[in-house]
Amino acid sequence: MKTSLIITTAVICLCGSAPAATRSSAGSQAKPVNIVLSDFAFTPQNLHLHHGQAYQIRLVNRGSGGHNLAAPEFFAATQVSPGDAATLVGGRIEVGKGESRTVSLIPVTVGRYRMSCTHFLHAGFGMTGTITVD
Ligand SMILES: [Cu+2]
């Protein structure tokens, strides 16, 4: 019991916003998760999510050009809100310079998934990361 409380707290810290709203036990309320895309990195680089928990993922592009978050295996193992389906094309979400995209989803399958930006050479410059679902 105590262990589970500690783990929950750690994940809330990762989100970095609205800790008060996420204090109710795991359930229907979507937890906000912010990911910044820059030249050439994801921040945070390693995401930690819980299966069955609803998240509102917000991607913010602070780079000097377009970026995307490509994670086809993760999205295939995830229930994406029907209203956000159009944002997700071919397992990736494009975010133009200075723009942001929000996707509501629930990770379904436990695993460790790779994410990267598929723009030319960006992954090679370090624009990669992982999404761990437990
Ligand atoms: Cu990129």
Summarize the structure.
With 134 residues, the protein is mainly beta. The protein has helices spanning 2-15, 72-76, and strands at 31-38, 41-43, 46-49, 55-61, 67-70, 78-80, 88-89, 92-95, 100-107, 111-116, 128-133.
Description:
The protein is globular. The protein has one domain: Immunoglobulin-like. It is mainly beta and 134 residues long. The strands form three sheets. The chain has a five-stranded mixed beta sheet with strand order 2-1-4-9-6. A three-stranded mixed beta sheet has the order 3-11-10. A three-stranded antiparallel beta sheet has the order 5-8-7, with no helix packed on it. Helix content is 14%, strand content 41%. The chain binds copper (II) ion. The site of copper (II) ion has 6 residues, from loops.
Distance between the first and last residues' Cα? 17 Å
Q: Strands of the largest sheet, in order across it? A: 2-1-4-9-6
What's the pLDDT, averaged over the residues?
Answer: 86
- CATH top level class name: Mainly Beta
Q: Do you know the CATH topology? A: Immunoglobulin-like
CATH architecture: Sandwich
Number of helices: 2
What structural class results from the helix and strand content? mainly beta
Query: What is the assigned CATH homologous superfamily?
Result: Cupredoxins -  blue copper proteins
Count of strand segments: 11
